[in-house]
Amino acid sequence: MKGGISIRVRLLLGAALVLLAFLTGAGLAVQRANAESVQAAYFGRLQSTIYLLLAAAELDASGALVMPQAFAEPRLSLPGSGLYAGIYNVLRGDRWQSASALGQQLPFRRSLQAGQWRNETLDEAGGSFLSVSYAVTWKASAREAPLVLTVLEDRAAFNREVGAFTRTLWLWLGAASVLLLLAQLWLLRWGLAPLRRVASEIRRIEEGEQSRIEGRYPAEISGLTDNLNTLIQQERVRQTRHRDALSFLAHSLKTPLAVLRSALAEPAHLPATVAQQVSRMDDIVQHQLGRAIAGGAARFAPPLLLAPVVERIRDALAKVYAEKALDFSVECPPDLAWRIDEGDLFEMLGNLLDNAAKWARSRVGVRVWRDAGRLCICIEDDGPGFTDTESVLRLHVRGDERVPGHGVGLAVVSDLVASHQGELKLVRSLMGGARVDIVLPVP
Predict the structure, then answer these.
(1) 4 assigned to some structural domain
(2) Is 327 in the same domain as 274?
(3) 323 with 369, same domain?
(4) Cα distance between residue 371 and residue 423, in whole Å
(5) In the 3-class helix/strand/coil scheme, how is 115-147 assigned residue by residue?
(6) Do residue 55 and residue 127 come from a single domain?
(7) pLDDT tens digits for 159-207?
(8) 356 found inside a domain
(9) Histidine kinase domain spans which residues (predicted)?
(10) How confident is the model over 314-338, as pLDDT tens digits?
(11) In this structure, are 63 and 157 located in the same domain?
(12) Do 362 and 245 reside in the same domain of the chain?
């Protein structure tokens, strides 16, 4: 089922948003820092002009301020140049203005504490200015005069310089963002290539061109591909098991059906024959169904505590064989857990313990432990033991025809153990009877 936004689009959108936010923040910070730096440079130049005025200023005999006609800064002598100077004589109440301020009403400062500097931006009807003011008490001979010197510069030049830098900054940031997005797009394409290869291999598996995912993948994906291969293999094994079970079922039912057909000629023995053959067919069907659904899900099954399962089976069999007063000994760590289907475990242990209790004289032993990462199960009894360890694993073969049963239990256990890629061994027990060893690998 398709739906939702692809991983590539999600990552690209996320990267684009983060990149946009970062570059915008960085651009605004650099823009502000540049504006402050340029403004500080302008204020520095205006302060230098203040010192130029102080060097040129003189007082006449009446205490009036006398300034030269020309200055080292030529813009002060050029009307409308954008650089203006004014000196206010607080004592006399008059003001001197540079020739550049001719015919203009400019916001020259009139009052300021002696020795104080004032840097500011002024927005007046006549325009916007950068302003630096300085107050000084001027002394010449026996005379002194409190003066307030102000230098103004039109912000037009400042705005042009800052604007040019800002345009260049955002142009480069825009170009950088495009390049970074292209690089991010390439990196995403390169980084997601393994996922595309997995999807391509899965399509080829669906089309029958290959049987499993065979490529080498990064560690982050190898676990996924391994699990997919396991699922594919389990599905194939399950299909094979179902096909074999149906084939075996069809073949196995031929004999009981032939017996029933021949029994029709002997009506006197028909009921007993029908009952016997129906029971046998039921056993065959149950066995093949068990083979068809056995195993395959252990890898994904939750860990199962084994001790409670063993104890439940032991308690149930103790009631079934109460007349034999069997001594059941169980050795299983209470915290031992294993990934296995609970039904499979019940089937294996139930059949083996039932066989052991059926044949035992007085003792049945169960041991479950972990060894080198494998699960080991040992079930033994003090009965007569096995006479033929190979034949008892075949369907409908019993160790002793005098003991009730259908010869299905050990065959079912053998199939279950095989479905879990395990090992099953039938040996002589130290108790004197039969011993069944099961070893299951890590799912």
Answers:
(1) no
(2) no
(3) yes
(4) 14
(5) CCEEEEEEEECCEEEEEEEEEEEEEECCEEEEE
(6) yes
(7) 999 999 999 999 999 999 999 999 988 998 898 888 888 888 888 888 8
(8) yes
(9) 248-443
(10) 998 888 888 999 999 999 999 999 9
(11) yes
(12) no
Find where tokens 């102000």 sit: 150
From 107, 134, 161, the end of a domain falls on: 161
Residue pair 284/252 in contact (Cβ under 8 Å)? The answer is: yes
Q: Indicate whether 118 and 256 sit together in one domain.
A: no
Dihedral over alpha carbons 251, 257, 259, 262 (to 10 degrees): -130
Q: What is the pTM of this model?
A: 0.55
Whether the CB-CB separation of 72 and 54 falls below 8 Å is answered with no
- pLDDT tens-digit readout, 248-282: 677 667 767 777 777 777 777 778 778 877 877 77
Q: Provide the domain count of the chain.
A: 3
- DSSP-assigned beta bridge partners for residue 374: 371
Residue 417's domain spans which residues? Answer: 295-440
Name the least confident of 175-189, 207-221, 284-298.
284-298
Q: Please check whether residue 42 is in contact with residue 130, taking contact to mean a CB–CB distance below 8 angstroms.
A: yes
What single-letter DSSP state applies at residue 302? P
Residue 342 token pair:
């609970």
Q: How far apart are CA 2 and CA 338, in angstroms?
A: 36
DSSP letter assigned to residue 334 = T
CA distance 240 to 243: 5
Domain end call among 116, 144, 161: 161
Structure tokens belonging to residue 193: 């290539």
Q: What is the CATH number of the domain that holds 358?
A: 3.30.565.10
d(CA 126, CA 80): 12
Between CA 291 and CA 414 the distance in angstroms is 10
CA–CA gap between residue 100 and residue 106 (Å, rounded): 11
CA dihedral (237, 238, 239, 241) positive or negative: positive
Report the C-alpha gap between 124 and 340 in whole angstroms.
86
φ and ψ at 276, to 5 degrees? Answer: -65, -45
